[in-house]
Write a structure and sequence with these properties.
The chain is an alpha/beta fold and about 325 residues long. About 55% of the residues lie in helices and about 15% in strands. It has 3 domains: about 110 residues, Helix Hairpins, CATH 1.10.287; about 120 residues, NAD(P)-binding Rossmann-like Domain (Rossmann fold, 3-Layer(aba) Sandwich); about 70 residues, Alpha-Beta Plaits, CATH 3.30.70.1450. The strands form 2 sheets. Strands 3-2-1-4-5-6 form a 6-stranded parallel sheet, with helices on both faces.
Length: about 325
């Protein structure tokens, strides 16, 4: 960024000024020692009061050469001090200006987001979600109340809003009405539940994914409007059980989802009013040729899911195809 280059120039100038002052100080102490023969303490004190121009009297009577040295110290010392002070003021002003303009640019960027994900809370879970969204190149914004964490997000150029995610004003600032989904990963179930209620009230079509610490609170979140409720305890226990009963299946799923070198992608395709495959069977729709993938399931609007649908399965409005394809393919 242009401002970053300017800040580097100001830092370099400030460093040069400090080095210049050090040289003047060294020359003054050594000069008084050689010319006047004073002890090192008096030489240092005389150099300090001369360069800083505080106006104290002379430590000892000065000789002619001593007065010349004092004049030179005043001339160069005052000049270098003024130079350093100027560079320091410029640096502080430029840094403040950079922060203000950078923040304004980020807020403008957030205001223009559409179909993005709002991640509420940048803790252990939230940070992992952000990392996955970045890897998938999906637009997102983080809402974080901690000033320290928010500052770190800004340094990493991660779009964020500093504030309480449970407040409507904060969610509005995250452009919630244009968002595709919201991830609730705050510290407690109570905060996540209140966030779910607030978010669903602002946008009833928003997909809300909430994390719960206590699996018994799952139904409360579903009643509050959460689309999906994730319990790390329940998920971990289920994965352990699957590793015992069906280890090969778990290994395959983990290989596909975690290994970025595997050329396989699971994706969804909604069947809406403008879809060319609406009302057709899978055989008539030629999904493999059209979408470049193989359909493994169909999610129906009523909530049922048909796994491994046959070629005679007719596609209805609101259905969502779940398919597998090569990443190079495009819809």
């Amino acid at each position: 960024m242009r401002f970053k280059g300017i800040n580097e120039q100001l830092r370099a100038g400030l460093r040069k000024g400090i080095v210049g002052i050090d040289i003047v100080m060294f020359a003054g102490v050594v000069g008084y020692r050689l010319i006047e023969g004073w002890n090192w303490s008096d030489c240092f004190y005389m150099t300090i009061i001369t360069v800083s121009t505080v106006g104290f009297g002379e430590v000892h009577e000065l000789s002619g050469l001593g007065r010349i040295l004092t004049t030179l110290l005043i001339f160069f010392g005052v000049g270098l001090m003024a130079y350093c002070l100027t560079r320091l003021v410029e640096f502080l002003f430029q840094r403040s200006l950079t922060n203000v303009l950078g923040r304004r640019t980020m807020m403008k960027r957030i205001a223009q987001m559409k179909q993005h994900t709002i991640v509420c809370g940048y803790g252990r879970t939230g940070s992992r979600v952000v990392a996955e969204l970045q890897a998938a190149n999906k637009p997102f914004v983080v809402i974080e109340q901690s000033e320290e964490i928010a500052k770190r997000l800004g340094e990493q150029n991660i779009p964020y809003i500093a504030g309480d995610a449970t407040e409507e004003e904060t969610l509005d600032a995250a452009n919630i009405c244009e968002a595709d989904s919201l991830v609730a990963t705050l510290d407690s179930d109570a905060e996540n539940l209140f966030l779910t209620l607030t978010a669903s009230g602002l946008c009833n079509t928003l997909r809300i994914i909430a994390r719960v610490h206590d699996p018994e609170n799952t139904r409360k979140f579903q009643k509050a409007g959460a689309t999906r409720v994730v319990s790390p305890i329940a998920s971990g226990a289920n994965q352990i059980a699957q590793l015992i009963t069906r280890p090969s299946v778990v290994d395959l799923v983990e290989l596909v989802t975690r290994d970025k070198s595997i050329a396989l992608q699971v994706f969804e395709y909604p069947v809406d009013e403008e879809s060319d495959i609406l009302g057709k069977t899978l055989a008539e729709a030629r999904v493999r040729q059209t979408l470049g993938g193989m359909v493994i399931a169909i999610k129906h609007p009523a909530g049922q899911t048909s796994f491994d649908p046959g070629p005679d399965t007719r596609l209805q409005l609101g259905d969502t195809l779940v398919a597998i394809r090569q990443p190079e393919s495009r819809e």
